Amino acid sequence: MSTLTSFGDIQKMAASASSTSLKPSTPSTTISGLRRRPLSTTFGVTTLSFRRLHRDQPCRFVVLSMDAKPTILVAEKLGEAGVKLLKEFANVDCSYNLSPEELCTKISLCDALIVRSGTKVSREVFESSAGRLKVVGRAGVGIDNVDLAAATEHGCLVVNAPTANTVAAAEHGIALLTAMARNIAQADASVKAGKWLRSKYVGVSLVGKTLAVLGFGKVGSEVARRAKGLGMHVIAHDPYAPADRARAIGVELVSFDEAIASADFISLHMPLTASTSKVLNDETFAKMKKGVRIVNVARGGVIDEEALVKALDAGIVAQAALDVFTVEPPAKDSKLVQHENVTATPHLGASTMEAQEGVAIEIAEAVVGALKGELAATAVNAPMVPAQVLTELKPFVALSEKLGRLAVQLVAGGTGVKTVKVTYASARAPDDLDTRLLRAMITKGLIEPISSVFVNLVNADFTAKQRGLRITEERVFLDGSPESPLELIQVQIANVESKFASAISDSGEIKVEGRVKDGIPHLTRVGSFEVDVSLEGSLILCRQVDQPGMIGKVGSILAEDNVNVSFMSVGRIAPRKQAVMAIGVDEEPSKQALKKIGEIPAVEEFVYLKL
Ligand SMILES: NC(=O)c1ccc[n+]([C@@H]2O[C@H](COP(=O)([O-])OP(=O)(O)OC[C@H]3O[C@@H](n4cnc5c(N)ncnc54)[C@H](O)[C@@H]3O)[C@@H](O)[C@H]2O)c1
Ligand SMILES: O=C(O)[C@H](O)COP(=O)(O)O
Fold it and tell me: Residue limits of the ACT domain (predicted)?
């Protein structure tokens, strides 16, 4: 198990550790009764994880060791500028051509891994990392070589470099298109072989011909733009592309069948996914114009290569120019590669000096940012949260996790948490609030205190699902100023008993509610009782008969125990009726002190909660 709770947490934990000067050698009363778990060291922070002996509640200590750096394994050649950036922050191990076994062995010592398309980052890699691997950086666009499901299950962020090689790939597509049309590769080889075959290598013209671009994303649209410049009539098929983007460069979006049936040239630019795998096959080749020419700089797997050989032999496809193959490198005797009407390059689409430097910088910045706890703008398996949104949501992120932690600790032992409802009240329009981050942190708060699983933004939804935890979300629209993204967050756990009966609301759920005040998360409701206590340190909730002297009695028991009270608030139904007192404490009270509080005659129930 990794002892890190999230990318951001490592910094928070480090900060709190430095402020409380925890050291492994420092004896601390909090350590008694705790069994030490394996030690893990990551980038500047050594985490000692302890587990309570009697209750399944993890407790973490973080110790700073300033010289420790994260380790980043660069498994494929990366531009120098990127490596330099990585070295400023981490120990960088550039080890190329690792076998799958060597990669699995090395990975357990690495916090991040950077690959291009030549390395398979399989489930075994994540399993072998035993939780240490936090980020996989794909120095390029296609992430079909990374097992995303396994990454997500292991809470490992995957980031890519989606923009820096777009132009290079588009230029290579155009290079293949023109080279194929004029038999450049074949003619070059024959001249070098001492031949002069001017009539054999008569080509075809591009001007006025129809080019169908399949996949009208970044590369596809750049290819389209360039092909228009060559005087081609360009159509495109992409079920997800906005029509106005196509219109803006004079491209008509059409159906797949129309695209392949009317094209003289087809250029492939979609990702390899389950739905695009072998999208060009016997059936679809049969629908094409006889003599069509095909360019593929996307992924080999989008073409059924056997079917393409047949279509080439039958003359349905006159020529193909391929940069990518189902298996790379393809077999030496591959019928496809050896076909006289095929032009092949060894996956060179992104291989320009400029693109490689750009990609290296793009991925290095993304990986370092992710290791520092920043949310990545190019995350592939986690929500991408723009920086300004994140700044606004930050205190609500903390509030969310604390409400989750509080709510789950109020559940009586033996009653499983299955159904949680989260309500966000805000004066902003629903579309203006991205709740994925908040939901992930609530999930983290709900799950971590009762398990050894670590939850972060990447694996929160997966972990909740795996544990049968159903989290529903509701937005309540409030009148008022939409200046703040949220007014309050409410977490309700249904169908459970509570160890603090007052936490059960009139409708029968455990209910906690919080707000952010001056940037600090506050608990503002427990069950039907309004309270107001800042969510720092730990908390004692106490239901009593409202009467004079209660605050004093509890306060002096805590003072005798040398426990500092940070906050106190009483919420009551009516004067001299029942009240709930919420007391924030900096230290954990001793068992004797808690027992004494429970023995005050007016106290009907109480609970101690760790935040
Ligand atoms: N040969 C190389 O070196 C090289 C370099 C860069 C990119 N690539 C590959 O090129 C492809 C495109 O890259 P990009 O940066 O343009 O990605 P992108 O995400 O910007 O564009 C992909 C487009 O494909 C579309 N798409 C998805 N499913 C589709 C389907 N079934 N039919 C039609 N369109 C579909 C998407 O809507 C998207 O617009 C990827 O496969 C990438 O790996 C290869
Ligand atoms: O998807 C990509 O970015 C390209 O296929 C480039 O891959 P490469 O970095 O392995 O050249």
Answer: 539-611
